[in-house]
Amino acid sequence: SGSMSDPSSFANLEEVSQVHVSFAITVSFEQKVFSGHVDITAVVHSEAAKTFVLDTKELTIHSVTLVNTGAPLEFKLGEPTALGTPLVIQYEGLGSHKGKDDDKPVFRVAYTTSTEASAIQWLPPSQTAGKIHPYMFTQCQAIHARSMFPCQDSCAAKITYDAKITVPEGLVALMSATRKGNEGSTFNFAQEVPIPSYLVALACGNLVSSDIGPRSKVWSEPEQIEAGAYEFADTEKYLKTTEDLLGPYAWENYDILLLPPSFPYGGMENPQLTFVTPTLVAGDRSLGNVVIHEIIHSWCGNLVTNRTWEHFWLNEGFTVFNERKVIGRLEGEKSRQLHSVLGLTRMNDAIDLFGAEHNFTKLIPDLTGVDPDDAFSGIPYEKGSNFLYFLESLVGAEKFENFMRAWMKEFAYKTVTSDDFKSFFLNFHADVESSVLEKIDWHAWLYTPGQPAVPNKFDSSLAEVYYQLANRWVEDGGESATAADIEGWSPKQVMGLLGALVDAKEKIFNPQQLKKLGEVYNISQSKNSEIQFLWYKLGIRCEYEEILENALTFLTSQGRMKFVRPLYRDLFASKMGKEKAVETFKTHKSFYHVICARLVEKDLHLKCEEATKFTCC
After folding, report:
1. What digits encode the pLDDT tens for the residues 159-191?
2. Cα–Cα dist 169/542, whole Å
3. CA–CA separation, 170 vs 180, rounded Å?
4. What is the Cα–Cα distance from 473 to 468, expressed in whole angstroms?
5. Short-list 299, 189, 201, 301, CA closest to 250
6. How far are the Cα atoms of 7, 375, 384 from residue 446, in angstroms, in the given order?
7. Which of 198, 381, 466, 568 is catalytic?
8. How far apart are the first and last CA of the chain?
9. Is the distance from CB of 52 to CB of 73 less than 8 angstroms?
10. d(Cα 176, Cα 269) in Å, to the nearest integer?
11. Span 14-24, pLDDT tens digits
12. Is there a catalytic annotation at residue 381?
């Protein structure tokens, strides 16, 4: 599948690939840095190779040595760019290691991170649940690993890793790897499955664990452990259902780390240790689909990985599609269909905000010169999932499930492009009538901006009830509303109702009507963050001043971009909230993760870069 070149990395992947990284680092909360070294083992592809080019971002490089001989190596750092700074290591004899499996070159790079490293968030005790100890966590996706350690920060160069991490006394370190015990405050880890650099993850804090299944623990500060253990009790059921669908799970354990509220995503699928936002803790397990999503990444993304971020849909579209297959198996096909219907809103929002002709609305966008964070939206998730649903509808569910299992088996531990997908799909379905396969306009699906090439028809029977109720509210402003309207509804249906009312742009509800909506259906008291988010969205759109204080509290008590960015944008566009939005963000900027803060600054026009208009997850 052509060149391995990656527009998001400086690495010379055609000549040399990293295959293993050994970390020996100390975490300093006082200086807000990691310091120590990495030993990077490489495989050489070209006899002409004389340099090993790594990605870095704001790292201070102290020295480079060839571990094989102990010899120091010359190195130079290039010019800093939006993608970071290339580190060029000179080694005349590099090409001579080609084909020598027992004599791979090992490069020791001694370095210190910047206090501003974009991968690392340092939380003072005041931002933790316990308020006594500090906390640190990393988030490397998409291209932030290079700010945490020098590496070929490209999905194409998968690595195994081991680590010795020294942290302040009394704190616990966790990584996206198997725990191998500790000597005092130095914790050991080993990741034996090759993974891309963006899945290296480290967290450190006052952490404890609780068993939630035969191969699973939840980790968090002691204050949250009981709530987390309750919320994620279905983890083993989700794992088993996914194994049944996609084949054996590749790791020995699946743990969940419940993070402090400033974590910017719903979840991050770090291997063996999914990171999740505390906004999932609704008290009734109603947001478990996010855990299902992260579990499925153990196959789609972590085992079979997009080769570059332009093919991100192969991670996320596959994960959403299979997440909904699992929901179908657990809750029935109608529930799978409802999730698919709700997903269309997320896709349409992204298309509306970018514009239907925008590069970022293609399933395969061009990321030349683009930070992948800026392209991040619901498109790869939902347009990708819609493509797979379309293909399933052509060949039939059973055959498509067999295809999915075969895909996982064929490309496990490897990286893939959309061309790999196309040829594997067509080969697998060689016995299918050509008249059926001719219905797939590959170019339109993969490279055309805007809506999917063919709209899918989903069963909307579970959605009809909330569409009907939303229409009634639009007609009579809730005059006929009673609590019985939503009796027996799932939280997803309540979200659907609120989403439909938000979408009913022509209808502006007055304060009395919104007060009734919030009270009669008990929405204003909901502990479900997705419902709270949509309730505030509706209130802001209708200039409902009574909601403002609660909306601002919600915005400053969690930092999940899926909620924070749209609400700041909506406040900024409202009469009642414009000044409050800017003032609130400026006051609380240090609470948010650096990725989140950078994107909200664009949303609020505090930075004059072209705003990225949509985010999710």
Report:
1. 999 999 999 999 999 999 999 999 999 999 999
2. 51
3. 18
4. 9
5. 299
6. 18, 16, 9
7. 381
8. 30
9. no
10. 9
11. 999 999 999 99
12. yes
Task: Calculate the CA dihedral of residues 532, 535, 540, 541 and round it to 10 degrees.
Answer: 140
Query: To the nearest whole number, what is the mean pLDDT of the chain?
Result: 95
Q: Which amino acid is at 273?
A: L
Packing angle of the helix pair 397-411, 235-246 (nearest 10 deg): 90
* DSSP secondary structure code for residue 160 in this structure: E
User: Measured in whole angstroms, how far is the alpha carbon of residue 445 from the centre of its chain?
Assistant: 23
Instruction: Examine the residue annotation and report whether 475 is marked as an active-site residue of this protein.
Output: no
d(CA 63, CA 582): 44
- Report how far residue 583's alpha carbon sits from residue 597's, in angstroms, rounded to the nearest whole number: 14
Which residues 6+ apart lie within 8 Å of 272 measured at CB?
A: 176, 177, 178, 191, 251, 252, 253, 254, 255
The torsion angle over the Cα atoms of residues 416, 417, 418 and 423, rounded to 10 degrees, is -60
Instruction: Give yes or no for a contact between 173 and 187, defined as CB atoms under 8 angstroms apart.
Output: yes
Which residues face 320 on adjacent strands? none
Q: Residue 585: phi, psi to the nearest 5?
A: -65, -45
Across-strand partners of 305? 415
Q: Tokens 């010795």: give the residue.
A: 164
According to DSSP H, which parts of 396-505 are helical?
397-411, 418-428, 434-437, 442-447, 461-476, 491-503
Q: How many residues make up the chain in this entry?
A: 617
Mean pLDDT for the stretch of residues 236-245: 98
Q: Are 273 and 174 in contact (CB under 8 A)?
A: yes
Q: Is 112 helix (H, G, I), strand (E, B) or coil?
A: strand
Task: Give the span between the Cα atoms of 595 and 250, in whole angstroms.
Answer: 30
Structure tokens belonging to residue 403: 């295809």
| Residue 607 confidence class, pLDDT cut points 50, 70, 90 | confident
Angle among Cα 384, 528, 134 to the nearest 5 degrees reads 90
Catalytic site residue from 294, 316, 392, 530 = 294
Task: Answer for the pair 604, 568: CB distance below 8 angstroms, yes or no.
Answer: yes
Name the residue with tokens 């010359």. 74
What confidence tier does 369 reach under pLDDT thresholds 50, 70, 90? confident
What percentage of the chain's residues is helix, strand, coil (to nearest 5)?
40, 20, 40
Q: How far apart are CA 396 and CA 349, in angstroms?
A: 30
CA angle (560 as vertex; 466, 199 as ends), nearest 5: 115
Give yes or no for a contact between 107 and 52, defined as CB atoms under 8 angstroms apart: yes
- Amino acid in position 148: M
Nearest Cα neighbor of 4 from 134, 196, 232 is 196
Cis peptide before 142 (omega within 30 of 0): yes
Radius of gyration of the chain (CA): 24
pTM: 0.94
User: Given this model, what pLDDT does residue 4 score?
Assistant: 57
